[in-house]
Amino acid sequence: MARGHLHKFGGSSLADADCYRRVAHILLTHGNSDDLVVVSAAGKTTNFLYKLLSLRDSGQLWQEELQVLISYQQTLIEQLLSNEQARDLRERLSTDKSQLVSLLSLAQLNDYQLNQVVSFGERWSARLMAALLRETGVAATHVDACSILVADEGAVPNILVQESRDKVQALLALHPQERLVITGFICANRQGDTLLLGRNGSDFSATLIASLADIERVTIWTDVEGVFNADPNKINDAKLLKSMSLAEADRLARLGSPVLHSRTLQPLFNTEVSLAVRSSYASHTDFTLIAPLSSSASAPVVTNLNEVVLFSFKMNTNLAPLLSLLDAAGLTPLAYWELAQHKFELAFTLESQKQVQALLTKHAEQWAIEELTIQTDLGLVALVSADAHHFRRSFARLLSRDAKPIYQDSLSLVTLVPQAQVSLLTQKVHRRCAGPKMRIGVLLLGVGNIGEAWIDLFKRASPTLDRELEATVELIGVVGSQKALITNDGINLNHWQQDFQQHGTQWDYDKLFAQLAQLSCDEIVALDISASATLTLQYPELFARGIHVVSANKLAGSGPLPFYRELKQQLSNRRLFWRYNASCGAGLPIQHALNDLRNSGDRIEAVGGIFSGTLCWLFENYDGSKPFSELVLEARGLGITEPDPRDDLSGRDMQRKLLILAREIGLAVELDDITLNSLVPKALAELSLEEFLPRISELDDDLLQQYAAAAEQDKVLRYVASLDRVEGKLQAEVGLQWVDNHHPYANLTPGDNVFVIRSAFYQGNPLIIRGPGAGREVTAAAVQSDLVHICKDLLQE
């Protein structure tokens, strides 16, 4: 039966006696009696051995430093083992010291002898760990990896897989039900000479031996809990990944992971061996599992390299053959760009610079490589995930003009930036793409027809909106005139009315603000779909609490100028947004147009139009054949007018809308600065509704006379709002006008709004915006548009 587990422990996990005891405890509590164990040299032992060689080469005394190293090993033995086992290891250590003295005393050391000096650290660790396990009463044997891993020599030893597999399998057969503690970092040639596996060689030893032994799981025990979605030493809110695919892990390793190394992962391809990365200091905590056959994408990981080298050159041939040549030499670029005019750019790690430069120089004539330049002042920022393509747009939005265009493959997005920008861009990419999604809570204030229409629209748009924004936008509250429902879990849009009726509670503003303060939302946007003056007075408190507002309610935008200025001042004091396009023209983009004209440098000279769908309907249908009052009552019966038609006929609504537009173009005006010519005589305006309706016919004579007089001049009656600058003076008025039959105010679809803008750019031929200016669906759409704009603004860095 195949063995199930191989554990690998690095030098930091074996730094002192307590560390050794911790490792022994892990092996006894997290493993089986036949587990394999691969160990590195304890603590900084390997560095110490290299230091001895350096002292020797420079002609300095090394004997004292050697004694320090031997004393360190003796102390570990004394602290961990009983007399009998300690005596055996002390004798072996004494022999090793003599051998080291002999090697360091030689006039010349060949490569094999140098390797032998450096390899003592792993041999000491394996012996001591096996002895400590035996001390606890379990069967354990130390194994020198030179006896099982055979390699051809090269810049990096090339493992002879089948020969090594045979030796590993034979070793396992000789030691059933016994823990084998194997040296990492080293192997041997066919003559038995020691070879070093190079940087991160012990991790490579572990995965290599696991693949040769048909082990199911390798666990690399280290000083971190696993792989994080960013470097936790640089990103405070980096999160541990519980799983990722082997392909993702390999791409991450190539792009600069501080935990994973590409060479370590290579033996796992085309096997069923999984790899766990765990902390030996917190063995009870979560860890990262790398599954070789996983097809599901992990959460995105952001990584960086503070220094890379960029090769730029011209080449008249296709890049693919050169990339194949580089791959064969083990010099796969981190990223590359094919530019115009046969120019190419390839990015590599600094460690690869000399090899890449030599290869390009060697093949320069063959590949017609010209104008080769090397740039070393750039760093790399990358995102790794099998779903990397989903994050391309968000990643791209964060790039400055100093950044290289995004390089994208199936697993990653990569850019290069000046080294000074690496840290900041890494934080931004993590926050936008890999960090927790921003949660934006929406508070609906008003549950009438428009509120219901907006919820229907929001329900349809929500999945697409969340995906495009890469955020979560949730309805967290519905507030009516009597009841309110506020929930941190979000309101179910499929049966919100039922929940509102069953779970809504009486409310006041103090209670409402207290509930909102308890919500776990990054931002809150309140939608004022009401006509409440009381709610308008709460806008300063909403802004003071950092709550953004979308207004279909026109009372705030047309309120007293000091109040309006106070609101605008609050917006300028912090990052707050207030949009109110729905308060004038419903879904028509009139405020967008005015702002665009001002931003373009245009000067707006006049704004006019018919801003009331009700008054448009009345005058488009009024032809003198029936009394105007009869038409008003018909419209009231159809629900076109307000319950009290005077609310429409007074023109007050259009006056407020004109004030909103005036302020939008920068005019400091009050409502009373706009002359209001009401259709309702003062005598009728002061009556109750019950008194007014029987006397509504008193409107008819004057309107009929005006209609006839206008018709004689081939004109029609329209109720119009107008704002004009005449010789530097403002003229603003709302009232009945006679207009030509071909005027933009004539021949509208009953119920439409029309806005006519004259500016420095639009003089003889004014800008006209026309369309439905009322209705639950178009008003709800305007509210939704403003909500989306605020969400996008909030997501901007």
UniProtKB/TrEMBL annotation:
Example GO molecular function = kinase activity
Q: In its keyword annotation, does this UniProt entry include Iron-sulfur? A: no
InterPro entries (UniProt xref): AceGlu_kinase-like_sf, AK-HD, AK-HSDH_N, Asp/Glu/Uridylate_kinase, Asp/hSer_DH_NAD-bd, Asp_kinase, AsparK_Bifunc_asparK/hSer_DH, Aspartate_kinase_CS
Recorded catalytic reaction(s): these are:
L-aspartate + ATP = 4-phospho-L-aspartate + ADP; L-homoserine + NADP(+) = L-aspartate 4-semialdehyde + NADPH + H(+); L-homoserine + NAD(+) = L-aspartate 4-semialdehyde + NADH + H(+)
Keywords, comma-separated and alphabetical? Amino-acid biosynthesis, ATP-binding, Kinase, Lysine biosynthesis, Metal-binding, Methionine biosynthesis, Multifunctional enzyme, NAD, NADP, Nucleotide-binding, Oxidoreductase, Sodium, Threonine biosynthesis, Transferase
Which pathway is this protein assigned to?
Amino-acid biosynthesis; L-lysine biosynthesis via DAP pathway; (S)-tetrahydrodipicolinate from L-aspartate: step 1/4; Amino-acid biosynthesis; L-threonine biosynthesis; L-threonine from L-aspartate: step 1/5; Amino-acid biosynthesis; L-methionine biosynthesis via de novo pathway; L-homoserine from L-aspartate: step 1/3; Amino-acid biosynthesis; L-methionine biosynthesis via de novo pathway; L-homoserine from L-aspartate: step 3/3
Q: Which residues form a coiled coil?
A: none
Residue ranges constituting the Aspartate/homoserine dehydrogenase NAD-binding domain according to the UniProt record? 446-569
Entries under PROSITE patterns matching the protein = ASPARTOKINASE, HOMOSER_DHGENASE
The EC number(s) given in the record are 2.7.2.4, 1.1.1.3
**The family this protein is said to belong to:** In the C-terminal section; belongs to the homoserine dehydrogenase family.
Give the PANTHER family listed for this entry: HOMOSERINE DEHYDROGENASE (PTHR43070:SF5), PTHR43070
Q: What does this protein do?
A: Bifunctional aspartate kinase and homoserine dehydrogenase that catalyzes the first and the third steps toward the synthesis of lysine, methionine and threonine from aspartate.
The protein depicted here goes by the name Bifunctional aspartokinase/homoserine dehydrogenase
According to its UniProt entry, this protein's organism is Shewanella inventionis
What does the organism's lineage look like at the top? Bacteria, Pseudomonadati, Pseudomonadota, Gammaproteobacteria, Alteromonadales
